[in-house]
Design brief:
The chain is an all-beta fold. The protein has strands at residues 6-18, 25-30, 33-36, 41-42, 46-53, 57-67, 73-83, 89-96, 99-100, 104-112, 115-126. It has one domain (6-126): Sandwich (Immunoglobulin-like). The strands form three sheets. It has a five-stranded mixed β-sheet, with no helix packed on it. The protein has a four-stranded antiparallel β-sheet with strand order 2-1-5-8, with no helix packed on it. It has a two-stranded antiparallel sheet with strand order 4-9. The radius of gyration is 16 Å and the shape is globular.
């Protein structure tokens, strides 16, 4: 894909509602940290949403979650996105269900054709610990 698209934002949230008639998207419960009772932890599914623009043609959009203290990838998913023109804004929505092995910092990264678009840090911590 040429040119490489840009991300207008990247949000982690509990869920997404898409209104049927207007196709408007509502993000429910955005967050940057998660509290859990134990590790490893299989959390309730959550969503990662981005708006991507300035692309042209097809691009493989990848979402990756890595554990920052070890660099190990714990989750990865890809989708193909078609940009009909450079002004098109594409909503990218990934539903995440994965096991987090330990408390600490994780990085959620969005890539297009293996090139960086956006990232967010996510902190996981055990109940009773400081967020």
């Amino acid at each position: 894909m040429v040119p490489r698209p840009i991300a207008l934002g990247l949000t982690l949230c509990d869920g997404v509602i898409i209104e049927e008639k207007t196709r408007k998207m509502s993000l429910i419960g955005s967050f940057t940290s998660i509290k859990t009772s134990r590790f490893p932890s299989s959390l309730h599914p959550f969503s990662v949403v981005a708006v991507v623009t300035d692309g042209l043609g097809d691009a493989t959009i990848k979402l990756s979650i890595i554990r920052l203290d070890t660099g190990l990838e714990i989750f990865s998913r890809e989708m193909v996105c078609h940009f009909p023109d450079r002004l098109a804004e594409m909503r990218v929505h990934f539903k995440i269900q994965c096991a987090f092995p330990a408390s600490g910092w994780y990085q959620v990264t969005l890539l297009a054709d293996d090139e960086w678009l956006a990232q967010r840090r996510l902190k996981l911590y055990k109940e009773g610990d400081q967020p």
